[in-house]
Amino acid sequence: MSTPSRYPAPLGTVDELAALRADLTDAGFTTDHLAELLGPVASAALHRDQPLTARRVLLESQDPAGALVRLLVLGEAVSAQEVSAALPRTGVEGAIQLGLAVPADLEPGEEGVPPLQGTCDLRPYGDDRHDWWVASDLSEVALGTPLPTDHVLGVGGASTTLASWTPRPQVARALDLGTGCGVQALHAAGHAERVVATDLSARALEFAAFTAGLNEVALDLRAGSLLDPVAGETFDLVVSNPPFVITPRHEGVPLFEYRDGGAAGDTIVANLVRDLVGVLAPGGIAQLLGNWELREGEAWTDRVGGWLESTGLDAWVIQRESQDVAEYAETWVRDGGHRPGTPEFDDLYAAWLDDFSARGIERVGFGIITLQRPLSDRAPFRDLEEVVGPVAQPAGPAVLAGLRARTWLAEHSDADLLAVAWSVAPDVTEERVGRPGEPDPMVIQLRQGGGLSRTVRLDTVAAGLVGASDGDLTAEQILGGISVLTDAPVEELRASVLATLRDLVADGLLQ
Ligand SMILES: C[S@@+](CC[C@H](N)C(=O)[O-])C[C@H]1O[C@@H](n2cnc3c(N)ncnc32)[C@H](O)[C@@H]1O
């Protein structure tokens, strides 16, 4: 059904990679320039795996970056002349030698130098501080066939989700588990002195080595399954976009290395959550993406909460979405390159539905699991919540601030919390909604402009507390004032407001 990849992973010496780097730079092969060259419509279509609009735009273009998109993103045949012009130092021979392309067949009756056919996906990628290039296998869009089982994934939706949500403190040692093309490791190298990147797939490690070399980023690449390659070591930050896709173990269902760890159901994520404590330095943070299976009547918080029980780790888990079993099956059968309406699509779809039905699974949740090893032997905090709407990008700064706030709350008493003179964060606004003509609002709520874009409904006591929190008076002093004004006993006011106060501090609305 699926065969291994046809072409080997790219490989280059330091000098060859330096020449390629200079060529790509001179050709303007950057995220900004490609966005300009393709324009918003073709860029968005390409993002949706529809290459036709980009092809039409590039047909008109003489831009060397356009030739590189056709060769290295769309996997098309490009004339040797265009390749030489776009990569003058590397040249046609160099591109072939690096494993980026092979000579294509000439059309019948055609003579001369054969064009080059792209065999490796290489594209610019960056964040607000970096411009990189990432090498991976050509996508399903370029291949036009179902993916090989040893496919090495490029930067996809899950990769950018994890990259966005990762808290990025400056650390000594970081681990990227399941590095694939190396994208998370590139990000980690921006704020870690040393980055270890592991993968079970030798092919993935070859792509990661090429990506690292091309970007002059030092990575300690190691082969092996899960935590085996780092046994006995500890890290300040662990990131992982693991092979979490729940896949039926059924004859004829391919095991894609890039997304499927080979374990039953959601075991791979459950085991990682349980085992990560072994590689976290005190105070160390781990973040991973995951899917979790939900049986009839089962709350996702119970399922994931069960994984956390014996870890002793702080945990903040955010469920971003959940899909019913049919949506889930469609997503992953399509992802493997099968088109609806084909017998292969239907067979695989049925295998997923049979597997879920046999095991009583009704839905599958997806989310971001952030863990922290406490510095002391205090009780770990656990926060499992659903955040489904858009959030500020990148979300990592809000996650780091939220971790810090939750840690402070876990280490301090209610009296400590009330003894702080809190300030309302600058991105917070208040909305009051009521019936026309009525003096009192029916609803008072706070809206967070940045961070995780929270909306928090307040009662009048909490609204009074927040309204007076300008960094001068402590929460206790403000509650004392409200008690005088309303004749309500201060103990009652404290009891009514404490849970809200904790949440506002945890989520950064009060700081
Ligand atoms: C979803 S991809 C993530 C790639 C990349 N880190 C990213 O964020 O795009 C998962 C990676 O895990 C690797 N993998 C699969 N099984 C593994 C295992 N048992 N141990 C370590 N890595 C594994 C795959 O080869 C693949 O590169």
CATH architecture grouping of the largest domain: 3-Layer(aba) Sandwich
Class based on secondary structure composition and strand pairing = alpha/beta
> Beta-strand percentage?
15-25%
What's the CATH superfamily of the largest domain, by name?
Vaccinia Virus protein VP39
Any idea how many domains? Answer: 3
Adjacency order of strands in the biggest sheet: 8-7-6-9-10-12-11-13
What is the CATH third-level topology name of the largest domain? Answer: Rossmann fold
Kindly provide the name of the CATH class of the largest domain.
Answer: Alpha Beta
- How many angstroms does the end-to-end distance come to? 56 Å
What is the share of helical residues? 25-40%
**Weakly predicted, low-confidence segments:** none
Q: Give Rg in angstroms.
A: 26 Å
The general outline is elongated
- Individual helix count: 19
Q: What is the number of E strands?
A: 16
